[in-house]
Amino acid sequence: MQNLEESKIEDKIKKVDIKSLTLEELTEELGKYGEKAFRAKQMYEWMHVKLARNFDEMTNLSKALREQCAERYTYTSLEALQVQESAIDGTKKFLFELADGNVVESVWMRYKHGNSVCISSQVGCRMGCKFCASTLDGLERSLLPSEMLDQIYAITKLTGERVSNVVVMGIGEPMDNYDNLLKFIRILTDANGLNISQRNLTVSTCGIVPRMRQLAEEKLQITLALSLHATTDEKRRRLMPIANKYSIAELMDVCKYYFDNTGRRITFEYSLVGGVNDTDEDAAELSALAAPLCCHINLIPVNPIKERDFVQSETARIQAFKNKLEKNKINCTIRREMGRDIDGACGQLRRKNLKAEGTDNSPV
Ligand code: SAH
Fold first, then answer.
1. Cβ–Cβ contacts within 10 Å for residue 50, how many?
2. Which atom of ligand 1 is the closest one to the Cα of 225?
3. Looking at 125, 132, 295, 346, which residue is catalytic?
4. Is 118 among the catalytic positions?
5. Residue 31 Cα, ligand 1 centroid: separation in angstroms?
6. Which residues pair with 167 in a beta bridge?
7. Which of 5, 145, 208, 333 is placed for a possible disulfide with 183 were both Cys, Cβ 3.0 to 4.6 Å?
8. Sign (positive/negative) of CA torsion 98, 175, 304, 313?
9. Phi and psi at residue 90, in whole multiples of 5°?
């Protein structure tokens, strides 16, 4: 066991994580060692366009510089431990190992309009939503900007296909890792990097109001998705502990603020849980919440996890719920289930892996 002094020293000598630097920061960092701006640009391109896995691959940089950098900086990269492919729709689920041995999941989906990747933002999660597998073991740590980028980079290399859409909807709560999330967005959508359009990026949150407000003020063109899942505070508290902290009224306020600041339509995610939030009355209440806002509702048939006894709503009920919303002129879709033959719900593959390694310490 490390004592506090040792861990403080370790923090001090922690190396700069080079892939988490913006081009501006990289230019400044290399400048400290007398390197010109064009070198930083070359290196940035190796990291974020050519997706090099280490300094050694950067063949137009001198061997001496590559060696110095390898000495000076941390260069993250992921190891694919497992890849599952759906026989139904080709969806691929990746289990990636990080440098410290932790694992996260990412999902690759092919749509008509391009390839979409769903990434994790943390190792585990501390939000405690009752139906979610990612939170059962709590939060281990947040991901670095580089580790979020690496999921997209590794999948691009492994599939050999360009990623056009990114959703931050995997393991973790992105607003609980706000600064790293922002850095990740800046680098991912940078014209000097992979240059993914901000409009093709969605960040999903369980509803941490102050961070949503802050995000609105960044005036980005990304889509903000709110995991709503219930229409009254009382019902929401039964599903999501975060509802004890922020009310639905506050959430609706901040959603309006986001739209007013960015002009971007909000997405509400609403997981339908049989007998819990799927009645006609729920649909009417949801319509009333949604009507004053510029929003789209994504209905998600809940993906049952074995640790909890929530069940999916009947197909006819889901359709009736949708019809009710549509009658009220609310824009909505039922999310198509992708990869239902592989470990679908987020967090399930990671948990399976923890159990296999005998490190599972969950109370269930
Ligand atoms: N923490 C973020 C993002 C990760 S979860 C958030 O809460 O939005 C991504 C989405 O999947 C959320 O809407 C979440 O509520 C939902 N989700 C989690 N587990 C689910 C399950 N078993 N079935 C259906 N939706 C689920």
1. 11
2. 8
3. 346
4. no
5. 43
6. 118, 202
7. 145
8. negative
9. 80, 0
**Residue 172 backbone dihedrals phi, psi, to 5 degrees:** 105, 165
Q: What is the pLDDT of residues 119-142, one digit of tens each?
A: 999 999 999 999 999 999 999 999
From the alpha carbon of 305, which atom of ligand 1 is closest? Answer: 22
So what's the pLDDT on residue 354? Answer: 77
Which residue minimizes the CA distance to atom 4 of ligand 1?
Answer: 169
Query: What pTM did the predictor assign?
Result: 0.93
**Beta strand spans in the chain (E):** 16-17, 73-74, 79-85, 92-97, 103-111, 114-118, 122-124, 139-142, 165-168, 201-205, 223-227, 266-272, 295-301, 332-334
pLDDT in tens, 176-207: 999 999 999 999 999 999 999 999 999 999 99
- The two structure tokens encoding residue 63: 């061997």
Query: Using an 8 Å Cβ cutoff, are 168 and 134 in contact?
Result: no
Tokens matching residue 277? 């939030």
CB of 131 closer than 6 angstroms to any ligand 1 atom:
yes
How many A from CA of 210 to the centre of ligand 1?
A: 20
Cα 257 to middle of ligand 1, angstroms: 23
87 burial type by CB count under 10 A (0-12 exposed, 13-18 middle, 19+ buried): exposed
- Ligand 1: distance of its center to the CA of 133 in Å? 9
> Per-block average pLDDT, block size 10, for the chain (364 residues)?
59 84 98 97 98 97 97 97 92 96 96 94 97 95 98 97 97 98 98 97 98 98 98 97 98 98 98 96 98 97 88 95 97 85 70 67 35
The question of whether 346 is a catalytic residue gets the answer yes
- Residue 269 CA: distances (Å) to CA of 16, 97, 230: 37, 29, 10
Half-sphere exposure of 113 (CA within 13 A, CB side): 6
Tokens for 201?
Answer: 């990026």
User: Assign residue 207 a region: left if phi > 0, alpha if psi is -120 to 50, beta otherwise?
Assistant: left
Q: Please answer whether residues 135 and 124 qualify as being in contact, where contact means their C-beta atoms are separated by less than 8 angstroms.
A: yes
